[in-house]
Specification:
alpha/beta; TIM Barrel; 8-stranded parallel beta barrel; 12 helices; 8 strands; 43% helix; binds 2-phosphoglycolic acid
Length: 263
C-alpha cells in the first residue's frame, strides 16, 4: 500500500450524471451506508465530483449534516473572470468550498480538444485559487502499442507541472484511456509501473519531497472487486472512479477496500 504519509484518496467522478436532487439522495445514502458499516472516516479520504449545477447543493448538505466528504469539480476555466461564456472560474469553486478539481480528464482532451498546454494553464488556475488539481494523464490503446504504457502519461504530466511550485498540493491520476468505462482495468502491475514512473516525474519536476507526499491515483474500470489489488501496490495511493462511483453500495465497498487488503 501507499506510504503511511500519503492518505489514500477515493474519488468519485460522476461525469454528467445525477441532477442536484439525485445528488442529495445519493450523498445522504452513501454517508449512511458507510456509517452503518462502521467505516472509519480517518482511514481514507472520500471525495465526490458532481456536475457544476449540483455543487452548491452538495456543499450545503455536507455542511449541514457534517458529512466527511471532500467536494470537487470536474473542470474549471483557465481564466479567473470576464467575457468567457459558459466557463466556470476557480474563484467560484473555491467560494463553494470545493477542495479539488479534475483537470485534463481524457473526455475533456478527446471531446473538447484540451491540449497539454491548456491542461497546464488549468493547473495554474486551480493553484491560484487554492484548489488541488487532480491532474489526469493516460495513454490510448494506440499509444500503448506504439510507445508502451508510461511514455505518453509521463510527457503529459511533465507539461502539466511546468511552473508549478515545489510545495504545491497536487494529485495525479493515471487513467489509461482504454481502461475508462471499458470494464477492462489495467492490471495492478501495469498500474504500479506507470504510477511509479509518474511519481518519478513529480520528483524531477518538483523535487523528492513533493514526490513523497503527492498522491498518485489509478483510474479506469475500478470496481469493488479489483480495488484492493490496486491499493496493495506501493505507488497507488487511491482511485478515481467513474461508473462504479454512481452506485451507492458499490462505491461504499470501494471506499471500504481495507477490509479486503488485510490491514
Ligand atoms: P470508469 O471511469 O471508472 O467508469 O472507468 C473512470 C474515469 O473516467 O475517471
Amino acid at each position: 500500500m501507499g506510504s503511511v504519509t500519503r492518505k489514500p484518496l477515493i474519488a468519485g467522478n460522476w461525469k454528467m450524471n445525477l441532477d442536484h436532487l439525485q445528488a442529495v439522495a445519493f450523498v445522504q445514502k452513501l454517508h449512511w451506508t458507510l456509517k452503518d458499516a462502521g467505516h472509519e472516516n480517518d482511514s481514507v479520504e472520500v471525495a465526490v465530483f458532481p456536475p457544476f449545477t449540483d455543487i452548491r447543493t452538495v456543499q450545503t448538505l455536507i455542511d449541514a449534516d457534517k458529512i466527511p466528504f471532500a467536494l470537487g469539480a470536474q473542470d474549471l476555466s483557465t481564466k479567473d473572470s470576464g467575457a468567457y461564456t459558459g466557463e466556470v472560474s476557480g474563484a467560484f469553486l473555491a467560494k463553494l468550498d470545493a477542495r479539488y478539481v479534475i483537470i485534463g480528464h481524457s473526455e475533456r482532451r478527446e471531446y473538447h480538444g484540451e491540449s497539454d498546454d491548456v491542461v497546464a494553464a488549468k493547473v495554474q488556475a486551480a493553484l491560484r485559487h487554492g484548489l488541488v488539481p487532480v491532474i489526469c494523464v493516460g495513454e490510448t490503446a494506440e499509444d500503448l502499442e506504439k510507445f508502451g504504457a508510461s511514455a505518453v502519461p509521463a510527457g503529459q504530466l511533465k507539461t502539466a507541472l511546468e511552473g508549478v511550485a515545489s510545495d504545491a498540493d497536487i494529485v495525479v491520476a493515471y487513467e489509461p484511456v482504454w481502461a475508462i468505462g471499458s470494464g477492462q482495468a489495467a492490471t495492478p502491475d501495469q498500474a504500479q509501473e506507470v504510477c511509479a514512473k509518474l511519481r518519478a516525474v513529480v520528483a524531477e519536476s518538483l523535487g523528492a519531497d513533493a514526490a513523497e507526499k503527492t498522491r498518485v491515483l489509478y483510474g479506469g474500470s475500478v470496481k469493488s472487486g479489483n480495488i484492493a489489488s490496486f491499493m496493495r501496490e506501493p505507488d497507488v495511493d487511491g482511485a478515481l472512479v467513474g461508473g462504479a462511483s454512481l452506485v451507492v453500495d458499490e462505491f461504499a465497498a470501494i471506499i471500504r477496500y481495507q477490509k479486503h487488503v488485510g490491514v
